[in-house]
Amino acid sequence: MFDIGFSEMVVIAVVALIVIGPERLPKVARTLGHLWGRGQRYVNGVKADIARDMAIDEFRQLQQQVQQEADNAGRAVKQVMQAADEQVQQLNEAVAKSAHTAAPTPPPITPQPAAAAPEQAQLELQPPPPTEKDSANR
Q1: Rounded to 5 degrees, what angle do the CA atoms 52, 57, 60 make?
Q2: Where do the domains of the chain lie?
Q3: Which letter does DSSP use for residue 102 in this model?
Q4: Contact status, residue 121 vs residue 114, Cβ threshold 8 Å
Q5: Would the CA dihedral through 10, 12, 18, 20 be positive or negative?
């Protein structure tokens, strides 16, 4: 900040020794040291306060961004839920319509006794013939 070299410091010390005197120079130097330390502590405290305020501002901005993203995600989820609910409702209405217009159900099939048709029972127990899909898997 101040461009003070060693030679300039020596000149200041010699002038201080002449003006203040050798008896009071150590006391003045000690007082100046204490004041310099206080000044440095004050400057460091101000810097820390500024840095803390900047960090708080950054955290607030980050919190706002996270809140906005959460709100956007919530809105998106609501839209998806509404669309899904509408599709389910449309499917329910379609099923209800098809139930009213459906053909009458055929009577249940009753099983035939096995003793009456032994050849047919034997045919049912045989596995179906292999298809092209089955031979491709092997």
Answers
A1: 125
A2: 7-99
A3: P
A4: yes
A5: negative
The per-residue pLDDT for range 44-72, each reduced to its tens digit, is 999 999 999 999 999 999 999 999 999 99
Torsion angles phi and psi, residue 115, rounded to 5: -70, -30
What is the pTM assigned to this prediction?
0.45
Burial of 20 (C-beta count, 10 Å sphere; 0-12/13-18/19+): middle
> Helices 6-20 and 25-101: crossing angle, nearest 10°?
130
> What distance in Å separates the CA atoms of residue 50 and residue 43, rounded to the nearest whole number?
11
Burial (0-12, 13-18, 19+ Cβ within 10 Å), 25? middle
Distance CA 37, CA 75 (A): 56
45, 47, 54, 64, 90 from 51: Cα distances, Å: 10, 6, 5, 20, 58
Give per-residue pLDDT as tens, 83-101: 999 999 999 988 888 877 7
